[in-house]
């Protein structure tokens, strides 16, 4: 019976430790939720002022303009690369056709 009572008390201590750990985690989660809510409220207050809203919109438009400019540059770059690749492919094809004919100017004169 001594083994069963020690085993039972051991299970209770494990359970109480787990419950204590769970309680601490719940407190941390609750604290995080409160802090997050506080920051959201602060951010809302900052954006509600006319000055902050204008600053935010100016920055947003600036970032959008940069994105459009970057996309345009990438499109131009891509077209240039394609043009260079096609030009080099056609140049190598035309150079290859003259080499493989097997006749030269000297051969034509001797005929």
List the helices and strands and how they pair.
Layout: H1 2-48, H2 50-99, H3 105-110
Notes on the protein architecture:
The chain is mostly helical and 111 residues long. The protein is built from 3 helices and no strands. The longest helix has 50 residues, at 50-99. The model has no long low-confidence stretch (mean pLDDT 80).
Element pattern in H and E: HHH
Strand content: under 5%
Number of strands: 0
Mean pLDDT across all amino acids: 80
What is the rounded distance between the termini?
Answer: 120 Å
Using the CA coordinates, give the radius of gyration: 38 Å
Largest sheet: none
List key phrases describing it.
mainly alpha
Short description:
The protein has 111 residues and is mainly alpha-helical. The protein has three helices and no strands. The chain is 93% helix and 0% strand.
